[in-house]
Amino acid sequence: MQTTPDEIKDTLTRAREEVSKVIIGQQEVIERSLIAIFAGQHALVEGVPGVAKTLLVRTLARVLGCEYNRIQFTPDLMPADITGTNVFNLQRNEFTLIKGPVFTTFLLADEINRAPAKTQSALLQAMQERQVTIDRDSHHLSPNFTVFATQNPVEYEGTYPLPEAQKDRFMLKIRMDPPARDEEIMLAQRMIDETSPEATLAAGAVQAVISADDLTRMRHGLNAILVRPELLGYMVDLVRGTRTHDSVLIGAGPRATQSLLLASQAEAAIAGRDFVTPDDIKMMTLPVLEHRIILRPEYEIEGLTIAEVIEKVIEGVTVPR
Protein backbone atom coordinates (compact mmCIF):
# COMPACT_ATOMS: atom_id res chain seq x y z
CA MET A 1 0.00 0.00 0.00
CA GLN A 2 1.36 3.40 -1.01
CA THR A 3 2.17 5.73 1.87
CA THR A 4 0.66 9.21 1.53
CA PRO A 5 2.33 12.45 2.69
CA ASP A 6 -0.49 12.95 5.21
CA GLU A 7 0.19 9.53 6.71
CA ILE A 8 3.90 10.27 7.01
CA LYS A 9 3.20 13.67 8.58
CA ASP A 10 0.74 12.13 11.07
CA THR A 11 3.25 9.46 12.06
CA LEU A 12 6.07 11.97 12.49
CA THR A 13 3.81 14.22 14.57
CA ARG A 14 2.81 11.37 16.89
CA ALA A 15 6.45 10.26 17.15
CA ARG A 16 7.51 13.78 18.16
CA GLU A 17 4.80 13.89 20.81
CA GLU A 18 5.89 10.56 22.31
CA VAL A 19 9.57 11.44 22.32
CA SER A 20 8.77 14.79 23.96
CA LYS A 21 7.35 12.92 26.95
CA VAL A 22 10.94 11.97 27.78
CA ILE A 23 13.15 14.57 26.12
CA ILE A 24 12.51 18.05 27.50
CA GLY A 25 12.79 20.73 24.80
CA GLN A 26 15.17 19.88 21.93
CA GLN A 27 12.34 19.96 19.35
CA GLU A 28 14.70 20.66 16.46
CA VAL A 29 16.95 17.80 17.54
CA ILE A 30 14.00 15.39 17.68
CA GLU A 31 12.78 16.48 14.25
CA ARG A 32 16.19 16.09 12.62
CA SER A 33 16.66 12.68 14.23
CA LEU A 34 13.35 11.57 12.71
CA ILE A 35 14.45 12.97 9.34
CA ALA A 36 17.59 10.82 9.43
CA ILE A 37 15.58 7.71 10.38
CA PHE A 38 12.84 8.12 7.77
CA ALA A 39 15.42 8.94 5.08
CA GLY A 40 17.19 5.65 5.85
CA GLN A 41 20.44 7.35 6.77
CA HIS A 42 22.69 7.89 9.81
CA ALA A 43 23.21 10.84 12.13
CA LEU A 44 26.12 12.27 14.07
CA VAL A 45 24.97 13.80 17.36
CA GLU A 46 27.29 16.25 19.09
CA GLY A 47 26.93 17.81 22.50
CA VAL A 48 28.50 18.13 25.91
CA PRO A 49 27.95 15.23 28.34
CA GLY A 50 24.59 15.11 30.09
CA VAL A 51 22.26 16.60 27.46
CA ALA A 52 20.36 13.29 26.92
CA LYS A 53 22.01 12.11 23.69
CA THR A 54 21.84 8.46 24.74
CA LEU A 55 18.32 8.81 26.12
CA LEU A 56 17.16 10.36 22.85
CA VAL A 57 18.13 7.31 20.79
CA ARG A 58 16.68 4.85 23.33
CA THR A 59 13.40 6.75 23.23
CA LEU A 60 13.32 6.87 19.41
CA ALA A 61 13.80 3.09 19.29
CA ARG A 62 10.87 2.59 21.68
CA VAL A 63 8.61 4.98 19.79
CA LEU A 64 9.35 3.44 16.38
CA GLY A 65 9.07 -0.17 17.56
CA CYS A 66 12.65 -1.12 16.73
CA GLU A 67 15.46 -3.00 18.44
CA TYR A 68 18.19 -1.00 20.10
CA ASN A 69 21.81 -1.66 21.05
CA ARG A 70 24.48 0.58 22.48
CA ILE A 71 28.27 0.50 22.15
CA GLN A 72 30.38 2.54 24.52
CA PHE A 73 33.47 3.50 22.53
CA THR A 74 36.72 3.50 24.50
CA PRO A 75 40.39 3.65 23.41
CA ASP A 76 40.82 -0.12 23.92
CA LEU A 77 37.66 -1.18 22.01
CA MET A 78 38.42 -3.62 19.17
CA PRO A 79 36.55 -4.07 15.84
CA ALA A 80 35.43 -7.58 16.85
CA ASP A 81 33.71 -6.06 19.89
CA ILE A 82 31.41 -4.29 17.41
CA THR A 83 30.84 -6.85 14.66
CA GLY A 84 31.16 -10.09 16.66
CA THR A 85 33.38 -13.11 16.03
CA ASN A 86 33.36 -16.85 15.40
CA VAL A 87 34.03 -18.93 18.50
CA PHE A 88 34.86 -22.64 18.43
CA ASN A 89 32.15 -24.76 20.08
CA LEU A 90 33.76 -27.83 21.64
CA GLN A 91 30.43 -29.67 22.04
CA ARG A 92 29.49 -29.31 18.38
CA ASN A 93 33.08 -29.35 17.11
CA GLU A 94 32.40 -26.32 14.92
CA PHE A 95 32.66 -22.54 14.90
CA THR A 96 29.63 -20.57 16.08
CA LEU A 97 29.01 -16.92 15.30
CA ILE A 98 28.67 -14.74 18.38
CA LYS A 99 26.94 -11.66 17.00
CA GLY A 100 28.11 -8.25 18.12
CA PRO A 101 25.90 -5.29 19.03
CA VAL A 102 25.90 -4.12 15.39
CA PHE A 103 23.20 -6.75 14.74
CA THR A 104 20.26 -4.53 15.63
CA THR A 105 18.04 -1.84 14.08
CA PHE A 106 19.08 1.30 15.97
CA LEU A 107 22.71 1.33 17.04
CA LEU A 108 23.98 3.99 19.39
CA ALA A 109 27.73 4.44 18.93
CA ASP A 110 28.30 6.38 22.13
CA GLU A 111 31.28 8.75 22.19
CA ILE A 112 32.54 7.37 18.88
CA ASN A 113 35.49 9.74 18.77
CA ARG A 114 37.00 8.26 21.93
CA ALA A 115 38.12 5.20 19.91
CA PRO A 116 40.97 5.17 17.36
CA ALA A 117 40.35 5.07 13.61
CA LYS A 118 40.80 1.28 13.35
CA THR A 119 37.82 0.68 15.59
CA GLN A 120 35.72 3.47 14.10
CA SER A 121 36.22 1.96 10.64
CA ALA A 122 34.49 -1.26 11.75
CA LEU A 123 31.20 0.57 11.21
CA LEU A 124 31.93 1.70 7.64
CA GLN A 125 30.66 -1.38 5.81
CA ALA A 126 27.63 -1.67 8.08
CA MET A 127 26.66 1.95 7.48
CA GLN A 128 27.13 1.84 3.72
CA GLU A 129 25.96 -1.66 2.78
CA ARG A 130 23.91 -2.76 5.82
CA GLN A 131 25.99 -5.88 6.13
CA VAL A 132 29.16 -6.93 7.94
CA THR A 133 31.92 -9.34 6.99
CA ILE A 134 33.24 -11.67 9.69
CA ASP A 135 35.97 -14.16 8.74
CA ARG A 136 35.18 -13.64 5.03
CA ASP A 137 31.47 -14.40 5.48
CA SER A 138 28.95 -11.61 4.87
CA HIS A 139 25.98 -11.18 7.21
CA HIS A 140 23.01 -8.94 6.41
CA LEU A 141 21.70 -6.41 8.88
CA SER A 142 18.18 -5.03 9.30
CA PRO A 143 16.98 -2.97 6.30
CA ASN A 144 16.18 -0.23 8.84
CA PHE A 145 19.68 -0.31 10.35
CA THR A 146 20.50 3.19 11.55
CA VAL A 147 23.56 4.46 13.40
CA PHE A 148 23.37 7.36 15.81
CA ALA A 149 26.92 8.24 16.76
CA THR A 150 27.41 10.65 19.61
CA GLN A 151 30.66 12.52 19.89
CA ASN A 152 32.21 14.87 22.39
CA PRO A 153 33.47 18.21 21.06
CA VAL A 154 36.98 17.82 19.63
CA GLU A 155 38.51 20.06 22.26
CA TYR A 156 37.60 17.53 24.97
CA GLU A 157 40.29 15.35 26.50
CA GLY A 158 40.89 11.92 24.96
CA THR A 159 39.12 12.39 21.62
CA TYR A 160 40.23 11.25 18.15
CA PRO A 161 39.08 13.04 14.99
CA LEU A 162 36.71 11.00 12.83
CA PRO A 163 38.13 9.92 9.44
CA GLU A 164 36.71 11.93 6.54
CA ALA A 165 35.31 8.78 4.90
CA GLN A 166 33.35 7.99 8.04
CA LYS A 167 31.99 11.50 8.54
CA ASP A 168 30.76 11.50 4.94
CA ARG A 169 28.53 8.50 5.69
CA PHE A 170 26.52 10.45 8.23
CA MET A 171 23.67 12.28 6.53
CA LEU A 172 23.24 14.87 9.28
CA LYS A 173 25.18 16.44 12.08
CA ILE A 174 22.80 17.22 14.94
CA ARG A 175 23.92 19.57 17.69
CA MET A 176 22.37 19.12 21.15
CA ASP A 177 22.80 22.23 23.26
CA PRO A 178 22.22 22.39 27.03
CA PRO A 179 18.56 23.06 27.94
CA ALA A 180 17.24 26.55 28.52
CA ARG A 181 16.85 27.76 32.12
CA ASP A 182 13.12 26.98 32.39
CA GLU A 183 13.66 23.55 30.83
CA GLU A 184 16.46 22.79 33.28
CA ILE A 185 14.18 23.83 36.18
CA MET A 186 11.52 21.49 34.81
CA LEU A 187 14.06 18.67 34.63
CA ALA A 188 15.15 19.29 38.23
CA GLN A 189 11.51 19.32 39.39
CA ARG A 190 10.84 16.02 37.68
CA MET A 191 13.76 14.52 39.57
CA ILE A 192 12.18 15.68 42.85
CA ASP A 193 8.82 14.24 41.77
CA GLU A 194 10.56 10.96 40.86
CA THR A 195 9.34 11.33 37.27
CA SER A 196 12.76 11.76 35.67
CA PRO A 197 13.04 11.13 31.91
CA GLU A 198 14.71 7.76 32.55
CA ALA A 199 11.92 6.75 34.92
CA THR A 200 9.28 7.84 32.41
CA LEU A 201 10.83 5.64 29.71
CA ALA A 202 11.29 2.68 32.07
CA ALA A 203 7.69 2.93 33.28
CA GLY A 204 6.39 2.32 29.75
CA ALA A 205 4.72 5.71 29.47
CA VAL A 206 6.09 6.04 25.93
CA GLN A 207 4.13 4.10 23.32
CA ALA A 208 5.23 2.79 19.93
CA VAL A 209 3.48 4.64 17.11
CA ILE A 210 4.51 2.25 14.31
CA SER A 211 6.24 -1.10 13.82
CA ALA A 212 9.54 -1.82 12.09
CA ASP A 213 7.65 -3.02 8.97
CA ASP A 214 5.66 0.23 8.84
CA LEU A 215 8.92 2.17 9.07
CA THR A 216 10.28 0.37 6.00
CA ARG A 217 7.08 1.13 4.06
CA MET A 218 7.14 4.80 5.00
CA ARG A 219 10.77 5.13 3.99
CA HIS A 220 9.80 3.99 0.52
CA GLY A 221 6.99 6.55 0.56
CA LEU A 222 9.52 9.38 0.63
CA ASN A 223 10.40 8.50 -2.97
CA ALA A 224 7.04 9.95 -3.99
CA ILE A 225 7.99 13.44 -2.74
CA LEU A 226 8.42 15.52 -5.91
CA VAL A 227 11.69 17.34 -6.54
CA ARG A 228 11.68 19.60 -9.59
CA PRO A 229 14.75 19.45 -11.90
CA GLU A 230 15.68 23.07 -11.16
CA LEU A 231 15.75 22.25 -7.44
CA LEU A 232 18.10 19.35 -8.11
CA GLY A 233 20.39 21.82 -9.85
CA TYR A 234 20.07 24.16 -6.87
CA MET A 235 21.24 21.40 -4.51
CA VAL A 236 24.18 20.55 -6.75
CA ASP A 237 25.21 24.20 -6.95
CA LEU A 238 25.10 24.53 -3.16
CA VAL A 239 27.33 21.50 -2.66
CA ARG A 240 29.72 22.50 -5.44
CA GLY A 241 29.89 25.98 -3.94
CA THR A 242 31.63 24.56 -0.87
CA ARG A 243 34.45 23.23 -3.06
CA THR A 244 35.27 26.58 -4.64
CA HIS A 245 34.96 28.90 -1.64
CA ASP A 246 38.25 30.63 -0.81
CA SER A 247 38.16 29.65 2.88
CA VAL A 248 37.48 25.93 2.31
CA LEU A 249 40.29 23.40 2.17
CA ILE A 250 38.08 20.36 1.55
CA GLY A 251 34.49 20.78 0.37
CA ALA A 252 31.51 18.42 0.32
CA GLY A 253 31.46 15.53 -2.17
CA PRO A 254 28.69 14.04 -4.33
CA ARG A 255 27.35 11.98 -1.42
CA ALA A 256 26.44 15.27 0.23
CA THR A 257 24.10 16.07 -2.69
CA GLN A 258 22.34 12.74 -2.21
CA SER A 259 22.00 13.39 1.53
CA LEU A 260 20.65 16.89 0.92
CA LEU A 261 18.05 15.47 -1.47
CA LEU A 262 16.86 12.85 1.04
CA ALA A 263 16.83 15.31 3.93
CA SER A 264 14.84 17.85 1.91
CA GLN A 265 12.25 15.22 0.97
CA ALA A 266 11.88 14.22 4.64
CA GLU A 267 11.57 17.87 5.66
CA ALA A 268 8.78 18.30 3.10
CA ALA A 269 7.05 15.17 4.45
CA ILE A 270 7.12 16.59 7.98
CA ALA A 271 5.32 19.65 6.65
CA GLY A 272 2.73 17.40 4.99
CA ARG A 273 3.69 18.32 1.42
CA ASP A 274 4.31 16.00 -1.51
CA PHE A 275 6.86 18.36 -3.07
CA VAL A 276 10.15 19.98 -2.01
CA THR A 277 10.57 23.76 -1.82
CA PRO A 278 13.77 25.87 -1.79
CA ASP A 279 13.11 26.59 1.90
CA ASP A 280 13.29 22.85 2.66
CA ILE A 281 16.70 22.73 1.00
CA LYS A 282 17.97 25.82 2.82
CA MET A 283 16.74 24.41 6.14
CA MET A 284 18.74 21.20 5.71
CA THR A 285 21.90 22.61 4.10
CA LEU A 286 23.75 23.37 7.34
CA PRO A 287 23.16 20.02 9.13
CA VAL A 288 23.96 18.09 5.93
CA LEU A 289 27.15 19.98 4.98
CA GLU A 290 28.64 21.14 8.29
CA HIS A 291 30.59 17.99 9.16
CA ARG A 292 31.81 17.46 5.60
CA ILE A 293 33.75 20.74 5.26
CA ILE A 294 37.28 21.53 6.44
CA LEU A 295 38.37 25.15 6.55
CA ARG A 296 41.81 26.43 5.69
CA PRO A 297 43.89 26.93 8.87
CA GLU A 298 44.44 30.63 8.29
CA TYR A 299 40.69 31.26 8.18
CA GLU A 300 40.10 29.18 11.30
CA ILE A 301 42.67 31.28 13.13
CA GLU A 302 40.73 34.39 12.12
CA GLY A 303 37.65 32.91 13.80
CA LEU A 304 35.61 32.06 10.69
CA THR A 305 33.13 29.23 11.32
CA ILE A 306 31.81 26.58 8.96
CA ALA A 307 28.26 27.82 9.58
CA GLU A 308 29.26 31.29 8.34
CA VAL A 309 30.84 29.79 5.23
CA ILE A 310 27.72 27.76 4.44
CA GLU A 311 25.58 30.85 4.90
CA LYS A 312 27.75 32.72 2.39
CA VAL A 313 27.51 29.82 -0.06
CA ILE A 314 23.69 29.86 0.22
CA GLU A 315 23.65 33.62 -0.41
CA GLY A 316 25.84 33.16 -3.49
CA VAL A 317 23.61 30.64 -5.24
CA THR A 318 20.55 31.85 -7.14
CA VAL A 319 17.31 30.39 -5.82
CA PRO A 320 15.17 28.87 -8.61
CA ARG A 321 11.61 30.13 -9.04
Explain how this protein is built:
The protein has 321 residues and is an alpha/beta fold. It folds into 2 domains: 207 residues, P-loop containing nucleotide triphosphate hydrolases (Rossmann fold); 92 residues, Magnesium chelatase subunit I, C-Terminal domain (Helicase, Ruva Protein, domain 3, Orthogonal Bundle), CATH 1.10.8. 45% of the residues lie in helices and 15% in strands. It has a 5-stranded parallel sheet. It has a two-stranded antiparallel ribbon with strand order 3-4. Helix 11 packs parallel to helix 13. The chain is globular and about 70 Å long. The model has no long low-confidence stretch (mean pLDDT 86).
Any idea of the CATH class of the largest domain?
Alpha Beta
Strand order of the largest sheet: 2-5-8-1-9
Q: Assign the CATH superfamily of the largest domain.
A: P-loop containing nucleotide triphosphate hydrolases
How helical, in percent, are the residues? 40-55%
Q: Which sheet architecture does the biggest sheet show? A: 5 strands, parallel
CATH topology of the largest domain: Rossmann fold
